[in-house]
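The record is kept unedited without comment:

——
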Amino acid sequence: MSSRRLTVVVGSLVTASFSAVMILPFTAAADDQGSGSSKGGKAVDAAPAGVKLSTLLPEKISVDNSSQKTAITATVKNDGSKDSGDIRLLVVGFDGLKVTDVQGCDAIAAKDLPAGSNSGFSCPVGSLAAGKSKSYDVQATYDLGKTGKICLPVQTADGKKTFWQQGPVPFGTTNPSPNAPATPLLLGTDNKPVAPGGDQLPKTGVGRDVLPLGAAGAALIAAGAAGLWWSQRLPRAARQRG
């Protein structure tokens, strides 16, 4: 084999090895959403005696940079000593995070969506036994040029009472990865897109310009028959260019 040909072959192998090193960690990240967290959650209406409902979201998710698709696991649990009674879980998207499907759940009609949201699904949980939980596979898209938030209210089946609500809580990136297959996002971190004209993916971090959840006030609104407390939307950030 000539010296020139040998150089080309070795160079190709090095390139292939480098690509594998870059891709594999992000493939793993898509499957590993980290431990569940109730960050951004709060009790609203009083639950029946012996019932203690809450929800969990993954600490981290991963967004495919080409398709903008991501997967999220939403969990509702009952840490009380009695069955919950007939309840439902809503999964609602805001700003750059749009919920496209939730396994076993029904899409909420556009006219019934909470103010400021762009998508939502209603999941009939039924009666959740004491100490039990139920998880749902959530499919979504995330526009990294915007902020993105998700909300998980737990209600009576008729929507007249909301026992618990997590969010709207943000997912955001602390490690922009413009040349990687995917971008990791962290729960409770607000996505801060770059200014117009920038050529990088959004940067994030909890800074002085990020409002804590609920700081802008909350309003009781109707989502179908349900009265939900929704935090006021943060200002829509400029869309990313490039």
User: Anything to note?
Assistant: Residues 3-34, 194-242 have pLDDT under 50 and may be disordered. The chain has one helix and 17 strands. The first strand starts at residue 36 and ends at 37.
